[in-house]
C-alpha cells in the first residue's frame, strides 16, 4: 500500500477510534438514550466504508496478482479468504 493511501487509512481508523471513545463518554455522561444508537450507527457506517476500501485493495492487488500468476492453489486461497470473511460476517 502506498504511503499516502496508508496514511489516509490510518487517519480514517483513528477517527473511528475517536467515535468509539465518544460513545463511552456519552454513556458515562448519561446522554439521552437514543443519541447513543445514532452514534453507534455512525460508527458502523464508518467501519463499513473502511472495510470496503480494504476489500477493494485486496481484490485489486492480491486477488488480481493470484489470477495473473496462473497458480490455481494461490487463486483458490484468495477465493477462500473472501468466502471465509463473508461467512463470518453472516454469523
Describe the secondary structure blueprint for this structure.
Layout: H1 3-28, H2 35-69, H3 72-90
Helix pairs in contact: 1-2, 2-3
Task: Summarize the helix and strand pattern as letters.
Answer: HHH
Mean pLDDT: 93
C-alpha geometry:
elongated
Helix content: over 70%
Content of β-strand: under 5%
- Compute the number of strand runs: 0
Terminal residue distance = 30 Å
Report a brief summary of the structure.
This protein is mostly helical and 91 residues long.
What does this structure look like?
This protein has 91 residues and is mainly alpha-helical. It is built from 3 helices and no strands. Helix 1 (3-28) packs antiparallel against helix 2 (35-69). The two termini are 30 Å apart.
Amino acid at each position: 500500500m502506498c504511503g499516502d493511501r496508508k496514511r489516509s487509512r490510518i487517519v480514517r481508523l483513528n477517527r473511528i477510534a475517536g467515535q468509539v471513545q465518544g460513545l463511552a463518554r456519552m454513556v458515562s455522561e448519561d446522554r439521552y438514550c437514543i443519541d447513543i444508537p445514532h452514534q453507534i450507527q455512525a460508527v458502523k457506517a464508518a467501519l463499513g466504508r473502511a472495510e470496503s476500501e480494504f476489500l477493494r485493495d485486496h481484490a485489486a492487488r492480491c486477488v488480481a496478482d493470484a489470477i495473473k500468476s496462473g497458480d490455481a492453489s494461490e487463486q483458490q486461497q484468495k477465493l477462500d479468504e473472501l468466502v471465509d470473511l463473508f461467512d463470518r460476517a453472516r454469523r
